[in-house]
Design goal:
Length: 150
């Protein structure tokens, strides 16, 4: 993570990847398109779809097991003009363009390219995601059955 990214209040690489993975797909691809002219040459290390195991914790026995498999699209790029900095993207589903857009934004942030614009994008997307999460939790809470009331 660059100093510019930290100055924009971007907490961690995990936050960046989590937020980008759940970002609005159209907005993410548009941002990546805007960043491409400044990035320069890109080496595509990998661009693929595949299945990954979904880990889950049994809350009764507190043991981990694999719930099943999830299809993911993954992209890994290296910026040739910026000391070989890497970018990574992985999303559920098979949208390789979305994964590549995520990797481009990740690499641009690592290189300090348009850190303010990326920081604003991440802030807006994180706020939208928080609102969606809150709405979902409210719906779940409305259906909760309290066994003590039976």
């Amino acid at each position: 993570m660059t100093r510019e990214a930290r100055d924009q209040g971007i907490a961690s690489h995990a936050f960046v990847l989590d937020t980008l993975a759940r970002s609005d797909v159209g907005a993410l691809k548009h941002l990546a398109e805007l960043l491409l002219p400044e990035i320069g040459s890109i080496e595509v290390v990998s661009s693929r779809t595949g299945l990954v195991m979904l880990p889950f914790i049994d809350t009764v026995l507190n043991t981990a097991f694999h719930l099943g498999e999830v299809l993911v699209a993954e992209a890994h790029i290296r910026l040739g003009d910026h000391d070989g900095l890497d970018g990574y993207g992985a999303v559920t589903g098979r949208d390789l363009e979305q994964a590549m857009a995520m990797a481009i934004v990740d690499a641009a942030l690592a290189a300090g390219i348009q850190a303010a614009r990326i920081g604003d994008f991440l802030s807006a997307q994180a706020a939208r995601q928080a609102e969606e999460d809150t709405a979902l939790l409210r719906k779940v809470e409305a259906t909760r059955v309290k066994m003590e009331t039976f």
